[in-house]
Design brief:
single chain; 342 residues; alpha/beta; eight-stranded parallel beta sheet; 48% helix; binds 1,3-dihydroxyacetonephosphate; glycolysis; fructose-bisphosphate aldolase activity; fructose-bisphosphate aldolase; FBA_I
């Protein structure tokens, strides 16, 4: 496999930096806008992304890569500057979400399978042309009384592997994201159940990646943290979550993987930051750990922006603060006091 894949993966994992996931599909960004009573228009989606990418201090200092949708990859800021040029100016690698979403799995298990493999080779060639250095595919794993099933874990792992090898063929670093949901329905599972399912999913995912011939040195893993379901009464400490997550990863993620960048998965902003920092204070890990957060980087900035360009500066300040806190966490140096002091 080419040296450049490894170089891109390592640049994404630059110490003290992480990834901004700004690849909400039209449906998902619509849900976020809905919460602040904004219509889901092309212009507002553009303004919102322009607010984020134009936060130049945050982008230059704390963000190594941004995951975009196809719409944003091809889009321009209000003054006509392509977003790709704004990112290039900040030395941020553009990435692209290439899956077509998670759809109900046949059967009545409440599970989902991610679609988007048909025609992916052609799309990837086009994205590479447009300058995408990395890509993302998200598999969703549901925990309920009868799920996950072996069938669903295998189907999702297989799709992730098919996607990953096609990315590498196109010179694009695949970010492999198998998300064991903690904020799904019914969401009452224990932390230990999440640990067991996460381990099983990672084991199957790496088995399929190897079978497909994926070069593990030219990919990144984007996993969930090990957490109880959102409706569980269990309240583990930050240190317990960190310890169990690192244990599960060490048992199932090969050392050849150049980095792990977590999703936030519906945790509060501070929880996502605290957990990352605590994991980075644990020694003896073969890979660096950073963030690839969507909501936990954007929540406050989205509310501060509220659909108005005149709020760009205030929203950018809020985003910059969260990015800085997570950059500190990526080095195990975040504290609650620093977060509050700002
Ligand atoms: P969250 O951090 O909001 O979970 O989003 C990250 C992501 O990219 C999910 O696919």
């Amino acid at each position: 496999m080419t040296k450049s894949l490894k170089a891109i993966a390592q640049k994404l994992m630059t110490p003290g930096m992480g990834i901004l996931a700004a690849d909400e599909s039209e449906g998902t960004i619509g849900k976020r806008f809905d919460k602040i009573n904004l219509p889901n228009t092309l212009d507002l989606r553009r303004d919102y992304r322009e607010m984020l990418f134009g936060a130049s201090e945050a982008m230059k200092t704390y963000i190594s890569g941004v995951i975009l949708t196809e719409e944003t990859l091809k889009q321009e800021a209000a003054d006509g500057t392509p977003f790709r040029a704004i990112l290039a100016d900040a030395d941020v690698i553009p990435g692209i979400k290439v899956d077509r979403g998670a759809f109900p799995m046949p059967g009545d298990t409440g599970e989902k399978i991610t679609e988007g493999l048909d025609g992916l080779r052609q799309r990837l060639a086009q994205y590479a042309e447009l300058g995408a250095g990395f890509a993302k595919w998200r598999a969703v794993i549901t925990i309920n009384d009868i799920a996950p099933t072996r069938n669903n874990i295998r189907a999702n792992a297989h799709a992730l592997a098919r996607y990953a090898i096609l990315c590498q063929e196109a010179g694009i670093v695949p970010v492999v994201e198998p998300e064991v949901m903690s904020d799904g329905e019914p969401g009452n599972h224990s932390l230990e159940r999440c640990a067991q399912v996460t381990g099983d999913v990672l084991e199957n995912t790496f088995k399929e990646l190897r079978l497909a011939g994926v070069d593990l040195a030219g990919m990144l893993l984007k996993p969930n943290m090990v957490l109880p379901g959102i409706n569980s009464r269990e309240r583990p400490t930050v240190e317990e979550v960190a310890r169990r997550t690192v244990e599960v990863l060490k048992a199932h993620v090969p050392a050849a993987v150049p980095g792990i960048a977590f999703l936030s998965g519906g945790q509060t902003d501070e929880e996502a930051t605290a957990h990352l920092s605590a994991m980075n204070r644990i020694g003896g890990k073969p890979w660096p750990l950073t963030f690839s957060y969507g909501r936990a980087l954007q929540n406050v900035a989205l509310r501060t922006w509220a659909g108005r360009r005149e709020n760009f500066n205030a929203a950018r300040a809020a985003f910059t603060h969260r990015a800085r806190m997570n950059a500190l966490a990526a080095q195990g140096e975040w504290t609650n006091e620093m977060d509050r002091a700002a």
